[in-house]
Amino acid sequence: QVQLTESGGGLVQAGGSLRLSCAISGRAFSVSNMGWFRQTPGTEREFVAAINWRGSTTYYSDSVKGRFTISRDNTKDTAYLQMSGLKPEDTAVYYCAADFRAWREGENLKQSSEYPYWGQGTQVTVSS
């Protein structure tokens, strides 16, 4: 059974940093495309960042480009989202997602529908 477990959320002041982690078990992480999404109450889940299975290509939403960095460590079966320059509008529940169809890398990784597997979410709150 595939499990994705996020950690690293919390409360931070505007301008601060957090690093989210997403650990995968139950399936070969090395062939997974990974994504991070976020959601606030009453809104749809929003794309944040994605990385292909090789770690060679990354994608970012315009709202986080230059502030967030997605990465992966295949030796630890873990993906990361380093968030810097946090703003109050970054407050949300952050979800990691995985798709083990490695050949489906590309702009499609920005779509939540691309990912069959999701973590439980971790709250990030940025105070002004």
Characterization of this structure:
It is a single chain. The chain has 128 residues and is mainly β. Helices cover 0% and strands 48% of the residues. The chain is built from no helices and 11 strands. Strand 4 and strand 5 form a beta hairpin. The model has no long low-confidence stretch (mean pLDDT 96).
Instruction: Let me know the average pLDDT.
Output: 96
Number of helices: 0
The helix-strand sequence is EEEEEEEEEEE
Secondary-structure content class: mainly beta
The count of β-strands is 11
Q: Name the poorly predicted regions.
A: none
**Helical proportion, percent range:** under 10%
Strand content: over 45%
What overall form do the CA principal axes indicate? globular
> CA-to-CA gap between the ends?
40 Å
Let me know the largest β-sheet: 7 strands, mixed
Q: What is the gyration radius calculated from CA atoms?
A: 13 Å
Layout of secondary structure:
Layout: E1 3-7, E2 10-13, E3 18-25, E4 33-39, E5 46-51, E6 58-60, E7 68-73, E8 78-83, E9 92-99, E10 117-118, E11 122-127
Brief sketch in words of this structure:
This protein has strands spanning 3-7, 10-13, 18-25, 33-39, 46-51, 58-60, 68-73, 78-83, 92-99, 117-118, 122-127. The chain is an all-beta fold and 128 residues long.
Keyword list:
single chain; 128 residues; mainly beta; seven-stranded mixed β-sheet; four-stranded antiparallel β-sheet; 11 strands
